[in-house]
Design brief:
- This is Dynactin subunit 3.
- By secondary structure, the protein is mainly alpha-helical.
């Protein structure tokens, strides 16, 4: 009903008969039915929506053109058809170049790729362990260096002559 109301509103607005104090939709439809009955056109509101949609559809072009008209259209569009044929032939030629190339032929099977992936995972774990060991080594060396530096500063302070006051 809302769609019908919107349609009716759009029609009234386009025609210029939109009333400032509009009545309810039901009274508009009732008055519309009465007006259609008086014109002996009351079948319009009784038609199923599906049949109305079919009336608005354009018939397929095959049903509306004669054989001569169809042939004329084919001949008229022949240059475009020829251009599409040339493009398809070129596409076929280029795809053969790509699909027959050595680079595409050398692509390994899924099993080889899976093995490589497993090897990479193993290498990743080994690198992670090596990274962690390196970090730990550097931390230990920095601690040792700090202890050595602190000890050196203490020895230096002890070896420094004390001023006589």
């Amino acid at each position: 009903m809302e769609a019908l109301e919107q349609r009716l509103y759009a029609i009234e607005e386009a025609v210029g008969t939109l009333q400032p104090g509009r009545q309810s939709l039901h009274s508009d439809i009732a008055s519309l039915r009465d007006e259609l009955k008086s014109l002996k056109m009351d079948l319009v509101l009784k038609a199923p929506a599906e049949k109305l949609r079919e009336l608005h559809k354009d018939p397929p072009i095959e049903d509306t053109l004669s054989t001569d008209e169809k042939l004329f259209l084919i001949q008229y569009h022949r240059p475009l058809i020829d251009k599409h044929i040339e493009e398809l032939v070129e596409m076929e030629r280029l795809s053969q170049i790509v699909f027959d190339s050595d680079a595409l032929v050398k692509i390994p099977d899924d099993s080889v790729l899976d093995d490589m992936k497993k090897n990479m995972e193993g290498l990743k774990e080994e690198l992670k362990l090596a990274h962690d060991e390196t970090i730990n080594f550097l931390i230990e060396q920095s601690k040792t260096l700090k202890e050595t530096t602190d000890a050196w500063i203490q020895v230096k302070n002890l070896a420094r002559p004390k001023p006589n006051v």
